[in-house]
Amino acid sequence: MDHQSREMTRGCAIVLVFVIGLLLNPPDSAAQVNRRLAVDYLNRGTNQLDAGNLETALAYFERAIELDPHYGAAYFSRGLVRKRQRDYDGAISDFTRSIELSPLPEAYLNRGATRKDKGDAGGAIVDYNKAIELKPDYADAFYNRGIAKDDERDLDGAIADFTRASALNPTNGRAFVGRGFARMKKGDVDGALADYSKGIELNPRGFLGFYNRAFARKAKGDLEGAINDFSKALEIDPADVDAWHERGVLRSAKGDLDGALADFAKVIELNPQHAQAHANRGIVLLLRKQDAEAQKEFATALQLDSSLKPGLEKSIEQITKILATGRPQ
User: Fold this and answer.
1) Residue 229: CB atoms within 10 Å
2) Interval 85-110: pLDDT, tens
3) Between 3.20.20.100, 3.40.50.300, 3.90.180.10, 1.25.40.10, what CATH number should domain 244-324 receive?
4) Does the CA dihedral 197-199-204-205 come out positive or negative?
5) pLDDT tier at 139 (50, 70, 90 boundaries)?
6) Where do the H-state alpha helices sit in 68-188?
């Protein structure tokens, strides 16, 4: 074979190898390219979601869906954003589409949680049931179902779910607090106290453990312990109006009028429209014989909520009698 023939043969071999290479490694299809791009946008969106940048995350997830309309994870992630934005219908729609494309327990869990946020506890339970069916050891699903059952007044069912959640995840303080709340509703104050204390032990920075244990301690007559728990709760969340108000009521009952006044003043600072705080502040001022200031608070309270009038008039009458007897403040 002459030199020219050898070159032609070698050239044919190169072309043949290239063609075989194309057959073995065909170029990516448009769908594959779009899926890779969609994954990239999903990852970017997830980073933004973790950083709390909801609008930016939403834009990335929507771009991922545009690139790949069959990408279940993108719908799921967009649902998480919409849930946090309180767009419950949009979130439910996204979780539903995610389930259609890829029926994962996490999608049922989050659709259930969104339905619960929307006030549909029954629908939430259906979704939690499905999540548990797909993943029988799903502690979060048992916990969430316990909350929904509590809302539906199925207290025994709620206690059973919280018990199962705590067994699957013994370090989850929320499950003990949830069970304590259900036990409290059933009148099992001692059981509630034990659960709240365990929840606090596991999560000492959990607001609800201290807040709810305060009510259990109050029910047992331990007012000082209840005041201490409200104080702990307020260290965790100083903006909680109800905790300030409840502590003020207890301080008043203990005779700490200065402390009660300070707490009611804080409630009014946080929420000037809190009629009950104005009424209670007026009652404390009346006990301190600061009649003019008390009357101003009573007037404000009744202007905000006229339904308080019968109870307020009764309280004023009782306080007037107490003061008339010369009983110590």
Assistant:
1) 26
2) 999 999 999 999 999 999 999 999 99
3) 1.25.40.10
4) negative
5) very high
6) 72-84, 88-101, 105-117, 121-134, 139-151, 155-168, 173-185
